[in-house]
Specification:
The complex is a heterodimer of chains A (386) and B (129). With 386 residues, chain A is an alpha/beta fold. The longest helix of chain A has 16 residues. In chain A, α6 crosses α10 and α9 crosses α10. The mean pLDDT of chain A is 96. Chain A is globular. Chain A has a single domain, classed as 3-Layer(aba) Sandwich (Peroxisomal Thiolase, Chain A, domain 1). Chain B has 129 residues and is mostly beta strands. Chain B has a single domain, classed as Beta Barrel (OB fold (Dihydrolipoamide Acetyltransferase, E2P)), CATH 2.40.50.840. Chain B is built from one helix and eight strands. In chain B, β7 and β8 form a beta hairpin. The radius of gyration of chain B is 15 Å and the shape is globular. The model of chain B has no long low-confidence stretch (mean pLDDT 95). Classes of the chains: A alpha/beta (386), B mainly beta (129). At the A-B interface, α4, α5 and β5 of A face β2, β4, β5 and β6 of B.
Chain lengths: 386, 129
């Protein structure tokens, strides 16, 4: 198979953008990622966007940005969409359908005062809505139920979950663009107000405006760009739901997408030098680490505790940009920032205080939707070509 | 003390599930069962999500146990949202009522009751059995 390469990445520096339109943010991140790659608008022949793109998705935003793609993909799996887009872009490139694929995402929920405990929007066509929204489900209490069940089955504690936030905050202090740069302690997390038991306020990610973009391309194009060659070596995707009334709140679709990505890449979890793990909530990280095989099911609490996710301190550096918990969660969708920080690490462009030495193999894991009802999972493994 | 029940709104319902809400109005919880593979599922569908067989309404016992729950804080009226595993073997998203939040436990036996919604329906929720 012809491998695909990440030639350009860009994370919008703003976390509050009340005066920018969402379309404008899409264009700004597109410009940033193309500049990072050393490519121009006319080079783009593939375009990928998801539900955050206003209007008629790619029709509106490609037109706004000024691209004329011959291949488009609008796979919508919530926050995991953009990692699915990397996978689909790699497939399209391998099939010869495009050579320079642009992925953009943007939104401004912070300006629009939308957060995790805001009731989910009505969608009259969703078959599940009357059986779920009626009861007041929202992001926070749906993920909280996953945490409650994991605690019940495996004895996981709020202190262990808090360590995930502590690690994110230790990293975020070095990120000048991070929304929350103050390091916090386990006690701080436990002392923060309860949002939905057992999740505290500091177990929840930030709500931020902004966005990000990626440029995925062929080896031939990437080789001409004088940037480190970051190759996509394995991808996996899966979705999971209530399964007709048989939901398992302790197991995510990462248990399916992860092994598929590892198999394609020909590597094991223990080979990974850096991991971006979607962190809408602390529990999201713990569940995915288990399901990806970094530790056994039920052992996530011990795996994340005592600073084990802190770069240079623990056994696995996770979310060295500060993640969604401290840095950025644009449009309430964190998938693209997961790919961006993985590429920074592989290029050696992460902040020196969090850079993993000799980082040549990284993983980006995304979750979208709601682990408490139905969700998408995408796993991408990247390698720096020497 | 037992907290008041935060109000619920069902919103638009599809014709294929109208019977569910009608029987709730009469104090009876129902499940959709497959006439081909003989398995129940929830939320209700016209075609079985396990085999795409035809389905029919059957009365449910109305008993089950709490699988997971969370208390929603930072809202004017706190409430408990949860999954109940019904005795028929399927999981149902619902609300837990009728007990102080700190007395609710995963694994606890519960039974259905029906409370009025703001839009004129009766909604199945669960209280300690």
């Amino acid at each position: 198979m012809n491998h695909a390469y990440i030639a350009g990445v860009f994370e919008h520096p703003l976390r509050l953008a009340p005066h920018a339109s969402v379309a404008q943010l899409h264009a700004e991140v597109a410009k940033g990622a193309l500049a990072d790659a050393g490519l121009s608008l006319g080079d783009v022949d593939g375009y990928f966007c998801a539900g955050d793109a206003p209007g008629l998705g790619p029709l509106s935003i490609a037109d706004y940005i000024g691209i004329r793609p011959t291949h488009v993909d609008t796979t919508e799996t919530g926050g995991s969409s953009y990692l699915v887009h990397v996978a689909h872009a790699a497939q399209a490139i391998a099939a010869g359908k495009c050579t320079v694929a642009l992925v953009t995402m943007a939104g401004k929920p912070r300006s629009e005062k939308s957060n995790a405990s805001t009731p989910r929007a009505w969608n009259a066509g969703a078959p599940d809505a009357p059986f779920e929204l009626t009861y007041g489900t929202n992001s926070a209490n749906l993920y909280a139920m996953c945490a409650a069940r994991h605690m019940h089955e495996f004895g996981t504690t709020s202190e262990q979950l808090a360590w995930i936030k502590v690690a994110a905050s230790e990293h975020a202090q070095h990120n000048p663009n991070a929304m929350l740069r103050q390091p916090v302690t386990v006690s701080d997390v436990l002392a923060s107000p309860m949002v939905a038991d057992p999740l505290h306020r500091l177990d929840c990610c930030v709500v931020s405006d902004g966005g990000g973009a990626l440029v995925v391309t062929t080896r031939a194009v990437a080789s001409a760009l004088r940037r480190p060659l970051i190759r996509v070596i394995g991808t996996g995707e899966a979705i999971s739901g209530q399964n007709g009334g048989h939901i398992d709140l302790t197991r995510t679709a990462a248990a399916i997408s992860g092994p598929r990505a590892f198999q394609e890449a020909g590597v094991k979890p223990r080979d990974i030098k850096y991991a971006s793990i979607y962190d809408s909530f602390t529990i999201t990280v713990l569940l995915q680490l288990e399901d990806l095989g970094f530790c056994a099911k039920g052992e996530g609490g011990a795996f994340v505790a005592d600073g084990k996710l802190i770069s240079g301190v623990g056994s696995l550096a996770v979310n060295t940009d500060g993640g969604g918990l401290c840095n950025n969660h644009p449009a309430n969708r964190g998938g693209i920032t997961k790919a961006i920080e993985a590429v920074r690490q592989l290029r050696g462009e992460a902040h020196p205080r969090v850079q993993v030495p000799g980082c040549d193999l990284a993983l980006a894991q995304g979750t979208g939707g709601y682990l408490g009802t139905r969700h998408g999972s995408a796993t991408v493994i990247f390698e720096r070509e020497s | 003390m037992t907290p008041p029940d935060a109000q619920m709104t069902v919103g638009p319902i599809a014709e294929e599930t109208a019977q569910f809400w009608a029987t709730c109005g009469n104090g009876q919880l129902t499940l959709r069962w497959c006439t081909a593979c003989d398995r129940p599922h929830h939320y209700p569908r016209t075609l079985c999500p396990f085999c795409l067989g035809e389905t029919e309404w059957r009365n449910a016992s109305g008993y089950g146990e709490i699988y997971a729950f969370s208390i929603q804080r930072r809202v004017p009226e706190e409430f408990a949202v949860g999954y109940v595993k019904l005795d028929e073997g399927v999981m149902m998203l619902t609300r837990l009522v009728g007990a102080p939040f700190d007395e609710m436990r995963i694994g606890q036996r519960v039974q259905v009751l029906f409370v009025p919604s703001t839009d004129g329906l009766r909604v199945p929720v669960f209280q300690p059995a």
